[in-house]
Design brief:
234 residues, mainly alpha, Arc Repressor Mutant, subunit A, 2 domains
Length: 234
């Protein structure tokens, strides 16, 4: 009697090292030979291409080509584009906004300390993840952006609404400029941080400003905000 045959185990398709590189290509920061972290590299490639071309306009083939793989690998790890998009949100986007939420969780009694912590965290996060401000401009600000509902339903209650409520209370306590509209304070902070980083490729070339690093950008933003908000300690 012949020995029983073992059932075939499903194996991930091999990366196609000869795959043609996509125009949205960029280094994802991990060696191509590390198959154990291939799923992470595919997520990194996804956020890079989503930021450059938009979520709706990016195909699985283009993402796979970013790491020299095939679309079959993406189907193996994620099951399709909708599942890939969900993974990008849960494993790449939301953890960063969880990081931005931390200053609100600490006992920062003075509005100056809170604004300093928020500004430093946003700028450091945006510069360490340059795809984030690009993705934000493309997929949240645009009317048909895929991530707009994410901002309104999940990120809004996590950060902007809590920060706005805290600044409103500080304003009522006489600790910041009474002429400001509390509802506009959060978008003003974002404008001096996230969007300033998003526009960096333009202002660096226009003003020959490659010498401006994260610390210089932070000092500039804090000077602008402190002057306008007239932050005071109690």
């Amino acid at each position: 009697m012949p020995p029983p045959t073992r059932p075939d185990r499903k194996k991930p398709p091999r990366a196609d090292r000869g795959a043609e590189k996509d125009p949205c290509r960029r280094a994802v920061g991990r060696p191509a030979g590390e198959q154990a972290d291939l799923r992470d590299r595919l997520l990194d490639a996804s956020v890079a291409c989503f930021a450059r071309k938009g979520i709706a306009a990016t195909s699985l083939r283009e993402i796979a080509a970013e790491v020299g793989a095939t679309p079959a690998l993406l189907h193996y790890y994620f099951g399709g584009k909708d599942a890939l998009q969900a993974a990008v949100i849960e494993e790449r986007v939301m953890p960063l906004f969880g990081r931005l939420h931390k200053p609100l969780q600490h006992a920062l009694d003075q509005p100056r300390d809170l604004v300093h912590a928020i500004v430093r965290t946003v700028i450091a996060t945006a510069m360490a993840n340059p795809w984030l401000p690009q993705l934000w401009v493309r997929e949240v600000l645009q009317e048909d952006g895929v991530l707009r509902s994410l901002m309104l339903e999940r990120i809004g209650p996590l950060l902007p609404r809590l920060l706005s409520a805290r600044l409103r209370a500080d304003q009522a306590a006489g600790l910041l400029n009474p002429r400001l509209d509390p509802r506009l304070l959060v978008p003003s902070i974002i404008g001096q941080t996230m969007f300033l980083v998003a526009a960096a490729p333009i202002w660096r070339r226009l003003f020959d400003a490659d010498d401006i690093d994260a610390e210089a950008l932070t000092r500039h933003a804090l000077t602008m905000l402190e002057s306008g908000m007239e932050l005071r300690d109690d």
